[in-house]
Amino acid sequence: MDRDFSQSFILFAYLILFAVFAYKMTMFLLEKIKPPSDPAQEYNRRKVIRAGFLIFFAIVYLPVIFSSLSLLPTVLGLAGAGIVISLKEVWLNMVGWFMIMGGNGFHVGDRIEIDNIKGDVVNIGFLKFTLLEVSSDPKAEQSTNRLIHFPNFSIVMNRFFLVSDAMDFVWDEFKISLTVNSDWEKAEVICNQILNEELVLAPELVEEKIRELSKNYLVRLGKTTPIVYTSLEQDGYILLSLRYLTPIRSKRLNRVLVSKEVLKKFKDEPDIHLVHIKG
Known about the structure:
Layout: H1 5-33, H2 39-65, H3 72-101, E1 111-114, E2 117-124, E3 128-134, E4 143-151, H4 154-157, E5 160-163, E6 169-179, H5 184-198, H6 203-213, E7 227-232, E8 237-247, H7 251-267, E9 274-278
Antiparallel strand pairs: 1-2, 1-5, 2-3, 3-4, 6-8, 6-9, 7-8
Helix pairs in contact: 1-2, 5-7
């Protein structure tokens, strides 16, 4: 009860070391006794246990730290100074965290674009969230394997675009240019066959995801089946636009699949002539 500042500081350091040691040993023993079945389970388990340890040791240690009343004014003065210095960003981060965790926020696994950076959400903390960056090239959208950390107040200060894990498919268009003397009707039939044989999402899957998303948003997706639009362009060629729904993480793979099938089918058609393929 009559500790001076140096004694309280040493006691606090020992308490922190003990808490860290207890956490490390708990995680080590838990992984040995019951290893996680997948990375997602390991991530969620670590996050829950870490939060539990913080709450538990905070409750246990606070009475010990404040048991020396002579230090209370010093502690409160230092805490007040820190709050005054960092008040703005801390409060904004807290507001951002509540927005993220709310019904119109996002979750781990969602793909978002914020401040011209696109990525998959891999962690959400109380002060920051982390993205696994995705290439900004619309033709690729592959992971760059770089982690980018954003303070939570970023969603308060910036607008963001979200592809929810609850509805992880988007519309994509694949464009093919034909010469004006090509048999565009035959080409349109072939493209429709490719889309309907290779790229059709199960209707029940689409409806299920729409119902899930409708809990927070009024979604009217309309037509969900693939379609081919044919138009005559001013440059004197015929443009076929293949429009289809694709899972966001399979966008590039499906473009490759469409390209290969188009090349195979058009190769055997002497009256269909490609000009070039636009991404």
